[in-house]
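Weekly puzzle thread! Below is a chain. First person to post its structure in token form gets bragging rights.
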Amino acid sequence: MWLVMNIGCIECGVSSAIVGVFADKEKADAIADECDEKYGWREGGQNAFEVFELPEPERVADEYKDVGSNVKLRGDEAGRPKASLSNAGFGVSAGPEKGE
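Winning reply:
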């Protein structure tokens, strides 16, 4: 799978956004090229349209593996997992874990 991403300009305040996800690299490249021609300048600043191969899901990239070792999953009320960063000094959660 291939992700087409609009990389906005932080200096200009131009937003970044996901353009789309495609199974075919040639199609992703064509979409990125067309977007670059059409939207290379928007919101008052420069935009770059890049294509990235999507990695394996549910896996932290080796470059960031230390961060991934701090992530623990727990279920929410609907049974979906939630992630929190336990050793980073902050957390992302919707409430206390069992036993807290």
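Puzzle host: Confirmed. Bonus trivia for everyone else. The two ends are 40 Å apart (CA to CA).
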